[in-house]
């Protein structure tokens, strides 16, 4: 488990731009070191703002988009192309404007896809796809993602792991179907905490006043069942990327005064 590091930016626009720059660098570094990179995308406002900032950055051309695997941390179980699906929003924010290899883009199934409305089968299918992509050196059923991003919800949820629901208690499976999510839609697919923790780096994104309480709670020792964001960490690094509004309720001993 890596201890969370915090970076606080002035506002959410700067946070999105700085995080996008950080992601470009991380992808280029991974491609240089290992030939390719793998990134897990998040849905939500902060995740989409980061993708849009990445798309608008001239430095995006430093990425070799053909040598990048893209996965999702969660998905809203809706029909293909639904505007509320995380992948639909990711396409709009970035993926339609960069030359990704479609074979290396790994969406979670829609509710009208190969598994029909069976969300458990769809989750199991994604777990199989992850397992097939894992190499012996990953020592587990999911690839060692280079960067896994998570938008933190105002209730401390990450991916589709909501406080107190069964999905956040899962210790065996890597992907689960989620029922009765308090944020619409109620049916979702999510990576579990064990799958999230397989990533080299986990980045938690929190911008805006409505995230302040969640950030303070998750970073002040709350348990992961009550505050799922508290249970999300990477093998090598756990990075909280915040704006000043989201950091405004952090205990003073946690707030990094030197952050830009
Ligand atoms: O529903 C979801 O919400 C969270 C956070 O979204 P935000 O708009 O409050 O930033 C996101 O992490 C998750 O991927 C998504 O499915």
UniProtKB/TrEMBL annotation:
Catalysed reaction equations from the record: 6-phospho-D-glucono-1,5-lactone + H2O = 6-phospho-D-gluconate + H(+)
EC number: 3.1.1.31
Any one GO molecular function term: 6-phosphogluconolactonase activity
Presence of the UniProt keyword NAD in the record: no
Top-level lineage group: Bacteria
Role description: Hydrolysis of 6-phosphogluconolactone to 6-phosphogluconate.
UniProt record similarity statement: Belongs to the glucosamine/galactosamine-6-phosphate isomerase family. 6-phosphogluconolactonase subfamily.
The protein, known as: 6-phosphogluconolactonase
Native species: Streptomyces albipurpureus
């Amino acid at each position: 488990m890596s201890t969370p590091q915090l970076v606080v930016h002035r506002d959410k626009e700067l946070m999105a731009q700085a995080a996008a720059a950080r992601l470009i660098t991380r992808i280029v570094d991974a491609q240089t070191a290992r030939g390719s990179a793998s990134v897990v995308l998040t849905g939500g406002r902060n995740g989409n703002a980061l993708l849009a900032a990445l798309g608008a950055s001239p430095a995006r051309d430093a990425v070799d988009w053909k040598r990048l695997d893209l996965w999702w941390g969660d998905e809203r179980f809706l029909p293909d192309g639904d505007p509320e699906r995380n992948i639909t929003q990711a396409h709009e924010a970035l993926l339609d404007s960069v030359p990704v290899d479609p074979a290396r883009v790994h969406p979670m199934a829609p509710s009208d896809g190969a598994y029909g409305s069976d969300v458990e089968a769809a989750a199991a299918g994604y777990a199989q796809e992850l397992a097939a992509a894992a190499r012996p050196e990953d020592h587990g059923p999911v690839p060692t993602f280079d960067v896994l991003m998570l938008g933190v919800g105002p209730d401390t949820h990450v991916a589709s792991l909501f406080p107190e629901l069964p999905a956040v208690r899962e210790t065996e499976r890597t992907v689960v179907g989620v029922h009765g999510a308090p944020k619409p839609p109620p049916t979702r697919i999510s990576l579990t905490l064990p799958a999230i923790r397989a990533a080299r780096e986990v980045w938690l994104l929190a911008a805006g006043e409505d995230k302040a309480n969640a950030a303070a709670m998750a970073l002040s020792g709350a348990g992961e069942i009550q505050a799922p964001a508290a249970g999300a960490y990477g093998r090598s690094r756990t990075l909280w990327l915040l704006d000043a509004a989201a950091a405004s309720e952090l205990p003073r001993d946690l707030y990094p005064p030197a952050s830009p």
